[in-house]
Amino acid sequence: MIALFCLFIPPLALVCLRERLLDNHKNIYASALTYAFSVLALNGILMFLLFYVFHSEDELLFKLNHHNGFACKYIVLSMALVFIEPFAEKFCREKVALQVKGFLKLPQFRHLKGLACIYALGLFLLNFIRIFDNNFWVDEAFTTNLVQHPLSEILQTTAADVHPPLYYLFVKTGYMIFGNQGWMFHLISLIPCAIILVFALTTVWKKFGKEAAVILITLAGLSNNAVIYNMEVRMYSWTALFVLLSFYELYNILTEGKNKNYILFALSSLAAAYTHYYGLVSVAFFYLSILILALRKKLELKKVLLTCLATIAAYLPWFFVLLNTFVSSIDTFWLKDSPTFGDTMNYLFSNQFGKKLWAVILLGIFIAFLYESGIVEIRKKEDGKFNVSVTFQKIRFSHILTWIIAGIASIVGTVGVGILVSKLLRPFFIVRYAYPVSIIAWLLLGITISRLKGKKLYTVLIVAYMLFVSIPAYQATYTIEKQANDTLQTTLATTKDLIVPGDAILANNRHMGGHIAPYYYPGVSSTTIDLSTFPELEKDITYWLIISGNVPEMQPVYREIAKQGFSYEQIVEAGNLGTHTVNIYQIKNRESSNQ
After folding, report:
1. Residues 6 or more apart from 79 whose CB is under 8 A from it?
2. For residue 377, what are the β-bridge partners?
């Protein structure tokens, strides 16, 4: 029944939508023929995508009828095509003019904005279809477990953690609305991606040009790091959004200086600081920039001081929590070393930019700086010759140039502070903490290109390169995640009715015992153990031994279990729980087993 719904209802919606949107009303026979063709075409496209893109080789009807998650994804993908096709056809009819003169030429699009919207929607859907994954690694499991507790306990726990509370409040809200759903946790992290894409299509397109918008859309929707953090049940995507919004309001302060710009700047920067501590570091450089400009009488000192004081007052209560957490974590934080500056800079673009491309980008930034600062001026004379003048006497710092410098200072400063603290005290910085300022680097790259001669060509080359390197990487990520999630579902299905509240889980991995197992088996106590010193077992409890990682020599463990009067049985071999390969054993008292 579910398979029939998935296969035949979306084509019906497609026929109805096309007739209404394209004013293409037909008689009953033509409509029936169109419906029959739509059934074949729509499901043929979906099967092509499943087989060649997502490498799904299982029998389609069986998966639709017996795997609700797969059926849900099939419906979502088919309905996406249902909405895309009529609007794309309408757009091409109205906005695309194809002229053939002598040789065939490329289509001339009258309205690129519509194409950009379709492009952004496509990238968003590539991220959206991944939200149905239920496989969480340890930090994600920490989030999923934490938000199931009362709000007061969430605040108390995160106060002792190395991250501030705002993101957990977002997830808690989603949990209160939708309950404990794997897709909900991913969806909360995907919301910033949707906002950034809309922001690029509207604000960035209008103020900084279509080239900057398209580059930002590509990097925010398809770069390796974005693909990871748009879905990860952690705070990085939200921090990136708030850093971007505060950076944009800094631009508005420089160009307009209205009261609302200062208010929005303070609110967005506070949100960044309350979402991630390195978000606090990133926006701190924006405040340093406006203070310097105010002291140089480029901005109103009164407004700047009021904004700074209001922000400090609003963050001060949590700042003391930050200090206590920092002091208590100096001897216990898990990091052993910190990345280099070069490694982190490469990470901003997902390590997808080689040295030659970096050289071209830096050259473009340097040329843009020469133009914007007035050091180099190129004018075309009446005789057709170009006059190039170089002067250092009247260097000007335009609003856009000042803003770009502030953005670069935030990127370099965030990385520099992280590395410096790690060198002076202990490692407190890892490359993923730089992800929130990646969004600034992406936007600055787009803006730099949009201000160069030949910007359309450069944009096409950058986007083409990113698609060339990112699509295979996305496909690999999707395939790995799908395989891991399928193994997870099999593992959970095998143990669902066996591991019940009142049982006890013994895990040889602290991540498994601390956060992952409690999420997948709620109400079951979980303890991390050392296999070399197997603990004493209680006679009236059914134990479950979860071995993750490489399977050790189990004979000594078996002997210890038998010595205590218990029997053991392997239930799962090479299963999966929270990105860990696991073997699961049931341990029962022999007396209760014989009864």
Report:
1. 10, 13
2. 389
Residue from 208, 203, 230 nearest 219 by CA: 230
Q: For residues 367 and 365, give the distance between their C-alpha atoms in angstroms, rounded to a whole number.
A: 6
* Secondary structure element (H or E) that encloses residue 311, with its range: helix 301-329
CA distances from 62 to 57, 67, 275 (A): 12, 8, 43
Counting other chains too, the contacts that 154-161 makes at CB distance below 8 Å and 24 or more residues apart are 159/321, 159/325, 160/325, 160/328, 161/325
pLDDT in tens, 508-550: 999 999 999 999 999 999 999 988 888 899 888 999 999 987 7
385 token code pair: 């010759």
Query: Full-prediction pTM beyond 0.85?
Result: no
Domain boundaries defined on the chain: 2-98, 116-483, 496-594
Length of the chain: 595
| Separation CA 579–CA 511 (nearest Å) | 11
Instruction: Enter the tokens of residue 361.
Output: 């980008």
Nearest to 521 by CA among 559, 488, 554, 551: 488
Alpha-carbon Rg for the chain, nearest whole angstrom, is 28
**Block residue for tokens 């029997």:** 567
Q: Consecutive sets of 10 residues in the chain, 595 residues long: mean pLDDT of each?
A: 74 76 62 69 72 65 74 79 75 56 46 86 93 93 94 90 92 94 95 96 94 95 95 96 97 94 97 95 96 92 96 93 81 80 90 76 74 64 58 68 92 94 86 95 92 84 90 91 94 93 93 94 92 87 90 82 89 92 89 53
Separation between Cα atoms, residue 128 and residue 187, nearest integer Å: 8
